Amino acid sequence: MSAIQRQKYSDPTQSKPGLLGQLANFFDDRTGYRALVHETLYERVPGGARWRYVWGSTLVFAFMTQLITGLVLWSSYSAGAQSAWESVYFIQHEMAGGWLLRGIHHVMAQAMVVLLALHLMQVVIDGAYRAPREVNFWLGLVLMMLVLGMALTGYLLPWDQKGYWATRVATNLAGLVPVLGPSIQQVVVGGPDYGHHTLTRFFALHAGFLPATLVLMLVVHLSLFRKHGLCARQPMVRADGMFWPDQVLKDAVACLAVMAVVLGVILMPALVAMLEGRPIVLGELGAELGAPADPSQPYAAARPEWYFLFLFQFLKVFEGWGASGEFLGAIVVPGLVMGAMFLMPIIGRWNLGHRFNIVFTLSLLAGIGLLTALALNEDYCSLWMDKASLAEADAFYRQTEGDSKKVAEVLGGDQTKIVAMQKKFAKLAAFRHSQSFLAAAAAAEVAGVRAIELASRPERIPPSGALELVRSDAKSQGPRLFAQKCASCHSHVDPALPLATEQMAESLAANLFGFGTAAWVRGLLDPVQVDGPAYFGNTAHKDDDMVNFVKNDLTDRDTWKPNDIEAVIAAMNAEAGLPEQALAEGTAALIEPGRRLIADTQRCGSCHAFRDNGTEFGSAPDLTGWGSRAWLIGLITDPTHERFYGDTNDRMPRFGQTEKESQIERIVDWLRGDWYRPRTAQQAVVVESSP
Amino acid sequence: MPAHMSKNLPATSPSTGDPLSAGDSAGGRRAFGAKALALVCGGLATLTPLAAGVWMFLDPLRRRGAVAEFLPVTKTSSIPADGVPRQFPVVADRLDAWTGFAGEPIGAVYLCRQKVSGQVQALSATCPHAGCFVEIDPVERCFRCPCHNSKFTFDGRMVAPSPSPRAMDSLECRIGKNGEVIVKWENFYTGIAGKVPRP
């Protein structure tokens, strides 16, 4: 064709080509690009352009999108255990348009998996794998595995809890490959444990090895596709069309539609926020970022990305098969299925075989869909299960502790009833499983939001990484540490909650919820509550001087006027100096009189030392700085110190002997509500406007 | 090498007229030699970076995890003697390639003190199925893995039917002079029937 065009230009009746034309001729003479472009564009499409042929093109488009967004993400990503999460945080929450770029990369990856399934289905149904296109079909399968490999490796790169724990499971499965498994696992993971080299290797695979191989294969795939021509849908009723512009138009429209869906998924939450009148936070759009990966903090809601959920669920099918079950589920069956797909072009030589292939592919996709639905149902069923119908089974379960003998006994050995009850028990177990998954997922979301809050402090992230920030955060670590170290005796529950009474009754020591607040002190000085489970009721001090004092002396309205008690409350509360409390109106004036009452050696001061009232340590805890950070750290470190309970200490251990100082500090900070809070926009304005 | 080739060239070219055809035996030998040599040279050249790459890529195989060692986990007094296991972090120095961590949580164990005997049992918190952390189910009074629902009794035995290939991994455990619980910390391969420690 280039020759024809050259002729046109050399035709003496035509005017001489312009500068641009001359330049084009120069390059065409030396490269023959016109022929190449022509060959690319003017491909005959037998039977005319069709929508069903767009899937391959949309996949190429999706891959190009991933290449563009991926390269730019690469320019800001840092693979390392102390920098991966941090750099992704920066991309997502700080860099201009980072949320959009990462969102496109994340959602397009999922779109690609869907497009792969559609492309595969179209190829199998149209029989486009049959001679002479077998090799190209096999190449397509390899391309599919490469794309899935990139999806798998990409999941880890943000180094957040979700990716970390899901990938741990995935790489543990790689260890099941016979003989070489453990070595493969160790090479992929980059050592005996997960860390820097897991990230660098996964990143090299994700952004180097796999896409480079994919590009090579794609070039061969496309040139073979052109060599064989399009496998037209039979019968061809319409006239042949041209690739350009007939099919290209359809392809372009399809690509635009894919992009629109991707953008729609990214922007949907923004639209919802707008309709609900909430502010739109750009960093929250697109791909989510959980809390930084913590090898010591398991993530109970760890799940692979939705398109791998069927494999995850498939492992449960082999319950009770022992070691061979996992090997079958993770290695053998997926291997056999892939093998069967590679054999399709051979099987498809016969008409019956072709039908078999179609049925096989459709049932495979249906099976994947079913397993995915099962997995989702297991995790989310408590959202739509009827709770009321389970109440009876739940009560019965608690009564019998689920023991089959007891169940039979209570039901009078009635076999039908027993079977029915066991079915209900199974439903109950499913419900509880789903509930704990949802709780773990919700907790993970809270942890993720908190990690981002901490990372965006004005001081930003320390060189030791965001995990260090999270681990030293009182707000998120406090409850965990309290549960481990304190909750075996103390409760920490809002007394206003419905289950509070029950929880406090089970505890062995005071309820520390709101310790240091006016409300807490008011409860302590309440004759009804002081020997209740929220204070001394379950301790050795139940009948001690303090309880007597509150019950008898404090109720004497002649010596203790109601305003006196309020003053003591205000003074104690001021002593604690909690960081996040606004003083109730009028209480500031009460603090000084309250201090005098506490110090008074005829009142509180007869037992308690307070400031310079001269009362000796030993009879009751020192109230100087009561509830302050230093006071609480001192108490927890050694409650038997004469400043605190001395030898009247009940069962409280001297935690200073077993625990790190930092852990005690964290619990104290949490109890006192002393943790980093981001200034809201409004507060910030107030602070900025004040000189 | 070039000298050898230039000596041969004039001898073959005129006799065949076409130096590229391997018509006569001398040309055939020459062509074979050239082909073999080309493959060897090109192969060697390419193999060098490839071998160097593979060498380094397989480096992780040389790396060994922490040697199984006895680590103090907690004090006996911290484990309530009610037969219900409690989770404790295992703290040790950890090395991640070039980064050394001093005193980091490297895993978790469940410690359980028997009501009557007061004996302490240690179980690794890692599920032997696929490596998630098992959790305590307070209602059914058992261990449950949040990933694939493997269930174990409080003493670590499997509850059938279970996707797990074996019972939870028990760890050697002894009580020190001052009542500290010392556990021999080990990681095991998951997904296989045998309890095989990782190197």
What would you note in describing this structure?
The complex is a heterodimer of chains A (691) and B (199). By secondary structure, chain A is mainly alpha-helical. Helices cover 62% and strands 1% of the residues of chain A. Chain A folds into five domains: 2-41, no CATH class; 45-302, Cytochrome Bc1 Complex, Chain C; 304-378, no CATH class; 385-447, no CATH class; 474-671, no CATH class. Chain A has helices spanning 2-10, 19-31, 33-41, 54-74, 84-93, 98-125, 134-156, 161-174, 181-189, 196-228, 243-275, 309-317, 323-347, 351-380, 387-400, 404-410, 415-455, 466-471, 474-486, 500-506, 518-524, 545-553, 562-576, 588-599, 629-637, 661-671, 681-689, and strands spanning 44-45, 241-242. Chain A has a two-stranded antiparallel sheet. In chain A, helix 14 packs across helix 17 (415-455). The radius of gyration of chain A is 35 Å and the shape is elongated. Residues 681-691 of chain A have low confidence and may be disordered. By secondary structure, chain B is of the alpha+beta class. In chain B, the strands form three sheets. In chain B, strands 2-3-4-8 form a four-stranded antiparallel β-sheet, with no helix packed on it. A three-stranded antiparallel β-sheet of chain B has the order 1-10-9, with no helix packed on it. Chain B has a three-stranded antiparallel β-sheet with strand order 5-6-7, with no helix packed on it. In chain B, 27% of the residues are buried. Classes of the chains: A mainly alpha (691), B alpha+beta (199). At the A-B interface, helix 8, helix 9, helix 12, helix 13 and helix 17 of A face strand 2 and strand 3 of B.
